[in-house]
Model the fold of this input.
Amino acid sequence: MERSSTTPHTGSAHPTPPCSLPHASTNLGGTDLNFAFSRIDIGRAILDGGDITLILKETTTVTPPDTTASAPIAIKASDIQLRNLRFRMSMLPVIDSLGTFIRSARLIVSDMFGIDQRSVAKRLWVCVPLFAIGIVMTFIDFDVIWRYFAWSNQALSVITLWMIVAWLRRMRRGLWVALLPAVFMTFVCTSFVFVSPQFVGMGATTAAYAAGAAVTLAISILMINRIRHDNGSGFDA
Done:
């Protein structure tokens, strides 16, 4: 920190400083100093001015505790006021995560389009566009990317639940255990599209939820009819 100060709330009493007494305990108005138990209770404190920088690096390790050091002093305050504090945090990119993403995406794309991956040229043909997409994403606000990622994660759960419904129908087992969650999550994802400003942006209004319910009903009917068509007539739950 650049500058910090703590101002305890003290009364009119001025006792002898307890620094020379290792087991002293005294009270300064709202402040209680107990050196026998390494405790300082501050009634009111003000921290004015500070610059905090937190840097997360790949090589950061946990410092082992120093068992030879003296016991730490516990400081407790019932009222703390923070003024003029600046906090910054930076995180250096981890190349291993990018490598895992590119490798997984390359295998998914090659499997979807039937691209053979035994030759280096075809691997580069798939990887270069993925690298380009990754570079472009570094210039986009991470908060925006994270919101879309969170929605896509829920959308993935919807797809998974409907796949489970189809599997249960094929195995002639009870469907309600997956059908109800599938419909519910479909409504959650579709209504978010109409409510959130990152999509349609209608806000938390009745019209937005009604539109989400209508899309949910349409998707549910489409999925049920498709499952019935693929597995014969009937949809016993």
Remarks:
- The CA atoms of residues 98 and 134 lie 8 Å apart.
- The longest strand covers residues 45-56.
- The mean pLDDT is 78.
- DSSP finds five helices and six strands in the chain.
